[in-house]
Amino acid sequence: MLTNELAILGIMCIVAAITQSISGFGFGVVLVAVLPIFGIEIKRVVVLVTLLVTVNIAIALWRLRHHLSWRRVVWVWVGVPLGFPAGLYLLTSAPLWALRGLLGAVLVFAAIQPLFTHATRPAPETRRWALLTGVASGLLGGALSTGGPPVVIYYYRRQWTKELTKACVVFTFVGTLAVRLIGYSLKGGLITHDRLVESAILLPVVIVGSLIGERLFHTISQEGFRRVVAVLLVLCGVYQIGKAAGAW
To answer: Which of 47, 67, 86, 203 gets the most CB atoms within 10 Å of its CB?
Structure first.
């Protein structure tokens, strides 16, 4: 691994870890969005995200352990392995511009939709929507390592406290991460010795970024948290639409 490349990876891992620790998601989105600009292969980035985000999730779970709820995440978990095989197929065999375009449109709509409605009641919890959220997360996680946005949208619309929202998002990621690790391992050629070494080198950087982000999370208000999530969703959506248009 070249020195310049390692520096880029380190800087972006810190940014990604801080982003995820503040909002509950975004680690994969940041790295997948930025690193290919520097010529780093998308498949390599996707695998690195899966390996490195583990420590960020572990730190967040420990900080939010009193807000964890099995009942609120179990049906999302059930849907993840149902969508993952299709995402893995897209990652290894198919063009991704259509999926990027669809993802971008959904993210932008989800972020700006509250601006055009007067409803103040939170969206209800249902097994059907939880299951569909899991399927969408599994598909996008397998294809782009960005399975977080559907999960974030689902919990974000419940209008819970920032602690409960983030706890449910991160707790859900435990299930999606496990599915991705198993799937990538079984596929072969994705989790290689070189990528494991890279992850070990970058792990301390991710820990530092995660701790910084956790400290910032506890200083922002409930409204500030919702604004951060909305801005990140819009930025992610615009990026995905731009990538789709360029590829198309």
So the answer is: 47
**Residue 21 confidence class, pLDDT cut points 50, 70, 90:** very high
Long-range contacts from 156-162, C-beta under 8 angstroms, 24+ separation: 156/110, 156/226, 156/229, 157/110, 157/122, 157/123, 158/122, 158/123, 158/125, 159/122, 159/123, 160/122, 161/222, 162/217, 162/220, 162/222, 162/225, 162/226
Going by the DSSP 8-state scheme, the letter that residue 126 receives in this structure is -
* pLDDT-wise least confident of 54-63, 114-123, 235-244: 114-123
Tokens 């996008």 found at: 140
Which positions ≥6 away from 175 have C-beta within 8 Å? 73, 76, 77, 80
| Sequence-ordered list of residues with C-beta below 8 angstroms from that of 113, at least 6 positions apart, any chain | none
The pLDDT > 90 percentage for the chain reads 23
Local structure of residue 81 (DSSP, 8 states): H
What is the C-alpha separation between 88 and 35, in angstroms, rounded?
20
- The sign of the torsion formed by the CA atoms of 172, 103, 99, 241 equals negative
- pLDDT tens-place string over residues 34-71: 887 788 887 788 888 889 999 999 999 999 989 888 88
In this structure, the number of other CB atoms found within 10 A of the CB of residue 123 comes to 14
Q: Which amino acid is at 43?
A: K
As a whole number of Å, the end-to-end CA separation of the chain is 32
Mean pLDDT of the 136-161 span: 80
Q: For residues 89-96, give the mean pLDDT.
A: 71
